[in-house]
């Protein structure tokens, strides 16, 4: 982790004024270096997609139902497993940028709160160690581990991609999440000492190598190594784990991914970090749901910051949502307890919103409870 | 009341630069502690509903009528009583947070200006004392007391709810306002010494008691104690007072409340304090009016800050409006005279707006005088 | 005029950085007391109408015509007189609030630039002196005086209204402008020594005299003295001068005013100073034009700050526009030369815009040159 | 170039934090005098068109295509020449205002990056010297020079216009760009010593010469010297070079320009500098494309600041775009290397965006990849 005299160390207990994820976000800046803060928060280009990921949620209003029965719970079934709530931790690169325990703290908090976690190819702790930490805590608590999935960035050499899949299988990961929208994104930050893509040790990394006047990207080896449909087919052939495709936004691509063997999709624009101008997932998920017609579960990633956002995503057709940047905020502010508190806040808000809508189960949430706000 | 060296005491006379409710709001911050100020002003979540309660009024424009006859007045009949203007004081919790005289000052100002007042279950002065103060002043002034209504939060034990109803009946309250939208809202502020829910002394309070990993809200005793339709039926059976249901927003729920015996409805989203994303009452009241088809009066609560807002609400189908946060502002700034002045300002603005529209009575105000502003 | 150590005296020459009316507005604040500045700039309520008067212009875009012939001029005929451009000075109260020469400076600048001026009942220089100053300068310059009109606020006593009309006729005013939308507006500022409604010396003024609990406005003598259709009929009967009605916004009222004998209308919401929520004149003028079907000229008042605004108003059906607050800005900054410069800037911008649109005469400007901007 | 103690000299190397054209813009202010900065950045009137040129791009969203083949390049054919990317340098006046090397630095950077450049009539280096610098560098680099075009402002005397055309032909310019929308625009800045319209040495300049009370613009000699259709016909008759008409926005004018012999059009509102209220080129280009039906290429000028903007313009029917103000920013910050870096950044972003959209050639970009963002 970066050390810097002006960066405050993480808290070890949660102060009373941290009552929402927005409180964590506001406080997080003082627990990161300016470079890391910018890296965590920034979006591509002018930040239009980044802002839109929030604004699209804010434009959706609720139609409440008064005095309804409130007997129910937030549980869902997904890819054969029970989840206590329709909320998972999104795959994030380099979580040790903001806290020394990095992904280990996240995995333990997720375990304690029965919350699924997706570990990134670019995790700053080896994928095996993360799984081991989660499993050990589950044993200590006498409970079944929460689902762990592995997010895969395809490597220039297919053999290296296969190694990652096998390691994930061996470590007990229960699904592979293939990201298809970020192969051409520049790194965006110089990693400080002690933070690295440890899972890729010894593997060559794809790089943009343009020179002025020469080819830049199109037609270069970097472009050729970007994921294609044949890569999904290959992956389908080499693993029995369920495969989720992450980074689609439109119905056509989604339908094809189902045809090619995906078991679930994560509708995402990569948190607004890749192509500025992409619409938000919550704007598009109904279109995707129509195109895939219930054949597979859809997860939504991007802009989720409150329990009401979860309700909106579910009501529009998502089976569950991913939480991204708020992990970095909570982890920076207070490590493991921060992560656990953040997840608990989100779930508490989710239940309160479901109660106000008179919908005590996820299955009862539908577009009839939503209305466009006239803003 | 909270004491703090930096908090200015209430004024005892009204300075000339307090000419609108906005002036009171601006000044009020210096007469409260930061905690109380935040508590008074804040909305749920990102404050979208809180802002929308204002924005929805601001989007409505007027179509004036020139050179009309201006002979008339603002009086209305409501639940068998005459009101000098279609304006009542909304039920607010803990008014002693901002002024030592709290609800007593409000009741006296309301009496002096012939304005109805709704006293909260969570008043910081016993409901009997508030009624007594109003009645005593009316006697002194030789006038009939303005209508006093009692707002009821159902208690976990029905017997306690019944006690509150009987006490209100005995103290001369003329109607019961059953709030149905806030049973699951957290308190939001730690009460300072001397401010408490005195009406509930000796009664157990509903509480959220979740532990990480366990049930949070849905399916818990707290959720079970939230108001249901059977509670309205029960209340209808135990009192002869008119019953208003507060906290509905949609036509379906409103129609059912009428069927279940409500005598009037207060269309409200609880001032944006409960579920962020709810539309504003003024946006929805026409829908409610259509569903209830004139069977009972509709009152509107939320965002009313100017005389023009009253005109808009009436023109869209409300019989009257409630004033909420401006009470806290005026009370903090100048206690009883502040409250009286605030009510007078609102009524003066109301008359001026009616005059500009060429509508000298409330009955003449209709949607034909309104237009959506192109903003 | 108010004196105050922090208020800068008016300039006597125009610095090079005053190139637009916006430059004058920005600079004007330092040439007025804070009270006067607020009084000049403020709108009623939350300022929605004030802002809308600008925003409505800004939402209108242009469709240019390239490489057109530019032979023409901005002249128009109005009520039997030629105007060099479709721009007149709006009636403003108390112009000595911002400059010792007040209305005299305006009248002389208007004369020098062949611009019509409407003198207010509430002018701070006697109406006779203003006319005399304009006529004297026209004689000196060897030109015909620009049109002078007199704006009439009806007085509680009809005899006093008649006196004002007769004085205006005697002083050479060429039309009477009857304002019908502001009888109930409070004064808004305490006049400093030396500034007063000199035309009304000796006449009783209408006042709001409400007491808490009593009647406020509707049904009071003040409301009864507001202008009615019978007052327009009376005025029509006592003068042969053309009568303009100022303060209408809608087609119905406009059509009736024509039926009742008005010779022209000034579409106005009183600069957003009277009823907050009124739409802007530029938003409504097409509706008025349809209702009056070319029977009389329409003038537009409100929000005009640039030459492009004049083009938009004319293209939508106005015969001419009035300039209001910019007079106070220019007068405060630089007195007579400021006023003359401001008028010249406006006309230069007007010609440049007409040229870009390929429309070298006002008659060529029509709605086919406009488009709603997608903002 | 202006010298001033507070103006920082241009950088000679590119710091790592200059990663986008926005970074250059932010930094540029410290490398210009306040007067020059204002002159570079400002728009006409209230800056509505200036802002709209950006906002119109920002309202356009993308529909991505996942996992597509990325073999291709950004090359286009235009007026018989190959361009490495659909990006040209717009004609700008007086580039020595921001850097001593002015247009020479631009021409060399353009040559190094195979980018077309349009030289302004108002260049601050003689047009012959600019062409010579470009050609010399191309020889040194052993490559064919990038296309150089000459932008023509018609002079009051046609003979002087002809001289300019002949000089451009002689110097090897490959096309004439006739600007038709700015003849009546005031200069806007006082040129410092050493910066001048050197191409016009010895020629009289058109001037606005209004006096208060007299004619201002319409019907004056200045208006008569504005470009007309007969001027285009004349130009067509005196040169064999391709002629582009710059400054049209609408289909009707565009179709006529094609009929009159234009070989290509540059859709432009002059960067928002001429008539405030004009819509943006990107808003109108589809209309122009329909009117001209593919008869000639359309170029788009105005608001282009990112690679995604280029994609949007191409997808809507442009063959290429011009870059305007970013030249001044890059030139001020770092002269020739700044210009080259800026062009390279733009092209890198362009390729990345094309890749995300799954469109590896310009021909594949169409409106099916775009969507209006719901903002």
Automatic annotation (TrEMBL), chains A, B, C, D:
Domain (FMN hydroxy acid dehydrogenase): residue spans on this chain: 13-375
**What is the superkingdom listed in this entry's lineage?**
Bacteria
Annotated positions binding glyoxylate:
153, 270, 273
Which InterPro entries does its entry note? Answer: Aldolase_TIM, Alpha-hydoxy_acid_DH_FMN, FMN-dep_DH, FMN_HAD
Q: Binding positions for FMN? A: 91-93, 120, 151, 179, 246, 268, 301-305, 324-325
Among CDD domains, the record links this protein to: alpha_hydroxyacid_oxid_FMN (cd02809)
User: Which catalytic residues are annotated?
Assistant: 270 (proton acceptor)
> What family name appears in the similarity comment?
Belongs to the FMN-dependent alpha-hydroxy acid dehydrogenase family.
Protein name per UniProt: Alpha-hydroxy-acid oxidizing enzyme
Taxonomic lineage from the root: Bacteria, Pseudomonadati, Pseudomonadota, Alphaproteobacteria, Sphingomonadales
